[in-house]
C-alpha cells in the first residue's frame, strides 16, 4: 500500500511539473524561454522551494471542453527564500492551455497571495499567460477580480513584484499594474489590453504586438515597466537584486543585505560577481566641484553625483529609461537603504514634465509605504513649458509630487546642488513642503526664475535705454544674482538649514540620516479622515 501510494504521488508530481507535456516544453525552450518551474528554481535559493496546490486540477467541465485535465491548472505556486529571506511566488505555465487563467488557476494565485499577506513576506508573480480562459467565461473573469482585490489589500503592506516573461494581455495586465514593480524582457515580454486584431477591427489601424505592448513601449513611453532586461535570467537576477533593498513588509526596516551580497554568486549568476562590495567606500571619491559645473547652462550627469555620495556601486535605478529628466532609485548610505529622487540636467535641462512628475511621485509614495528615507537632489529650472505639457495635464501631474512629498512621513533630506527655480523648487521637497533638513551648495541658485530671464523682465526698460545694452544686461544680471539668486538669502530666512562645502557633503548627509533614523511618524486618526484625495 505504502509503495503504491508513494509511486502514485511521485507520478502526480511528475505530471504537474511536466505541465503541457514535453513537446510543449521543447517549444517553450525553442523560443528562448524557461518553463514555469525552471524560473522558480532559478529565482529562489537552491532547494528552498515548497510548492502548494500541485494536485489542484482543471475544472471538470472545462477539462471536458479542452479534452484534457491538467494538474496545477497552468500555474505553479509556493514559497521559498531569496538570500535566505522568505518569499511567496506564483509562476504561470504557458505550456498548459497557453497559461490562461481559469477558476482553479485563479484560486491558487489568490491562496498564495493570502499566505504572503498573512506571513508579511514579498509576493512575486512570474507572468506568462494568454489571459482569461475563454472556456470558463465568468469564472475566469471573476478570478481576476479576486487577484486584483488581494493586490490592493496588500499594497503598502508587503512588496509586490511582477515579471512579464511572455504574453500578458487583457485583464491579466492589471495584476502587474497593481504591483509595486514590473520587470520586462526585451523581445520577449508583451503586455497590452487589446491585441492587434482587435485594434484593427475597431479602429481600422494596423499595428503590431510590439508597438502596442513591447518592452520598448512600456520601458520608455508608458512607464508601465520599472526595469527592462536583456533576457530572462538577467530579469530574475534583477528581482533578486531589488529585494536586497526592500524590507519584508511595512513594519520592518529596509537594511542593505550586506551578508547576502557577499555570498559567492550562484554559478548561473556569474554576471553579478563583484558587482557589490558595500562594507567600505572603496571607490576613490571625486570632488563634487569636478562633477557639477558652476555654469548653470552646462549639463552634467547626476548619476556621477549619486555614485559619489553612496557606498560603492550601490545605486539601483528604477524607471531607467522612462522620463530620463528625473532619476529615481535605491542606494546604500551608512549601511542603510535610502531612496533617491533627483533632477537630471542631461535631459530637458532637468525640467519636470508630466512623465517625470508621475515617476517621482510614484517612487516617493513607495518609499514612504516601506519606511525608506528619501534624499532629494535638486537642479531644476522649471516645470517644462509648452502646449503639449499643459494639454496633457502638467498641473495635475505636478501636483502629485507636491502631494507625495507633503504626505510622506519618512526622513526627508534635500540637497540643492545648483538651480532651484519657481514652482519646481517647491515641488522638489523644499523646507515648507515638510523636508526635515535642507542643504545647499554655495553655487546654488534659489529664485523665482534664472537671472537671464528675470532681468529681462525687471530691468527691461533700463537695458533698452542704455548706450551699451549688453554691458548693462550683464550688470543687471550680476546684481540680481547677488541680491536674489544664491543660497545665502534662503539660509538667512531659514529655508536652507545649512550651506555645505562640497567636501562636507557626504559625511553631513550620512550623519543627518543617522540622526533622523528615529523620527516619530504621526498617524492621522480615521476619525479625522479616511485618506486624502491625491490628484491622480
Task: Write a brief structural summary.
With 536 residues, the protein is an alpha/beta fold.
How is this structure best described in words?
With 536 residues, this protein is of the alpha/beta class. It is built from 23 helices and 16 strands. The strands form two sheets. Strands 1, 2, 3, 4, 5, 6, 7 and 8 form an eight-stranded mixed beta sheet that branches. Strands 9, 10, 11, 12, 13, 14, 15 and 16 form an eight-stranded mixed beta sheet that branches. Strand 5, helix 7 and strand 6 form a beta-alpha-beta unit. Helix 5 packs parallel to helix 6, helix 15 runs parallel beside helix 17 and helix 19 crosses helix 21.
| Percentage of β-strand residues | 15-25%
- Tell me how many strands there are: 16
Percent of residues in helices? 40-55%
Principal-axis shape equals elongated
Using only C-alpha atoms, the radius of gyration works out to 26 Å
Distance between the termini: 62 Å
- Any low-confidence stretches, pLDDT <50, length ≥5? 261-265, 267-281
By DSSP (H or I, 4+ residues per run), the number of helices equals 23
What is the structural class? alpha/beta
Instruction: Characterize the largest beta sheet: strand count, sense, and whether it forms a barrel.
Output: 8 strands, mixed
Q: Indicate the mean pLDDT.
A: 87
Q: What are the key terms here?
A:
40% helix; eight-stranded mixed sheet; alpha/beta; 16 strands; 536 residues; 23 helices
Secondary structure elements and their pairing?
Elements: H1 2-18, H2 22-30, H3 36-43, E1 50-52, H4 60-66, E2 75-82, E3 85-92, H5 103-119, E4 123-129, H6 137-154, E5 160-169, H7 174-177, E6 181-185, E7 190-192, H8 196-203, H9 209-213, H10 215-222, E8 227-229, H11 232-243, H12 258-261, H13 288-291, H14 302-309, E9 316-318, E10 326-333, E11 336-343, H15 354-369, E12 374-380, H16 387-391, H17 394-407, E13 412-421, H18 422-427, E14 437-440, E15 445-447, H19 451-458, H20 460-465, H21 469-483, H22 487-492, E16 498-499, H23 505-516
Parallel strand pairs: 3-4, 4-5, 5-6, 5-7, 6-8, 11-12, 12-13, 13-14, 13-15, 14-16
Antiparallel strand pairs: 1-2, 2-3, 9-10, 10-11
Helix pairs in contact: 5-6, 15-17, 19-21
